[in-house]
Amino acid sequence: MTTPALEAVDLVKTYPAGRKKPPLRALDELTFTVPEGVVLGLLGPNGAGKSTTVKILTTLSRADSGTARVAGYDVIRSQDLVRRSIGYVPQKSSSDPMATGVENLVLSGRIYGLSRSAALRRAAELLERFDLTEAGGRAVKTYSGGMQRKLDVALGLVHRPRVLFLDEPTTGLDPEARADLWNEVGRLSGDEGLTVLLTTHYLEEADRLADQLAIVDHGKIVAEGTPEALKAELRGDSVQVELVDPDLDGSVRALLRGLSGVGEIVVEGNVLRARVDQGATAVPAVLGALEDKAIPVVAVTVSRPSLDDVYLQHTGRSFRVAEEAA
Prior knowledge:
By secondary structure, the chain is an alpha/beta fold. It has two domains: 6-231, 3-Layer(aba) Sandwich (Rossmann fold), CATH 3.40.50; 235-304, 2-Layer Sandwich (Alpha-Beta Plaits). It is 37% helix and 27% strand. The strands form three sheets. It has a six-stranded mixed β-sheet, with helices on both faces. It has a four-stranded antiparallel β-sheet with strand order 2-1-4-5, covered by helices on one side. Strands 12-13-11-14 form a four-stranded antiparallel β-sheet, with helices on one face. The longest helix has 16 residues, at 175-190. 37% of the residues are buried.
């Protein structure tokens, strides 16, 4: 059997209590396996345990229990080999803003043991690869946010790693820069066969980039599979109804429970979500029932299953609500 590029088994990590804060169990027997050449998306709101997972897999932190292997190496017993096998792009830019793009890349190459000439050649390759050649001689502080993130990814690739970790790589980028970086990540996996672990709290990003998706909630993986397979598990359509007033007494929920073909009803404030067998026939019935009870409606939408619906199915709350809680 081929050795997995990434393997985590029953990882547990608890942070001790702080001032006025109880102990935090960040990882709760988290387990997954990733083959070579696959983009794994760890999807979850802030505080779900994604960054803690990355820190353990990159040897920056230790789990309380459980085991993990990266590129076939144990993250505790073979830390040096793990570090030589990975590239790591943290949430915040790791480049020196006062140095040029070339200087940043050459320094990284030298740290990994490249000669100066080899580091210069590799820097030129990566600057061209990420369309940064013209900016290579400028100080990084003059780069746009998207350019800085592309340089960060280039820094993670200087030593030709087998596995690349991208921790929330597009946070804070504008839509155009985000889409540009998505294209680069897709090329890394598709054209170069690199294994990528991507943490994200963007549903669209996970849907777009991940070959394999793991939804993380309170330190556990609650669902795993390809984005399409996870969405295909949900039958029917999703109906969302925005009410004028919140359903404080549960009367709206009770009303819809009595309708045929309507299930999995979740109410969050004045927004009601439900699964229906057929949206085209269910919506008139839902609106008719609400009108009969003089319950005013602001808007209603029908959609095919999305990753937000998948998250709702496995956690009992929408991704938006989970993000707000975090």
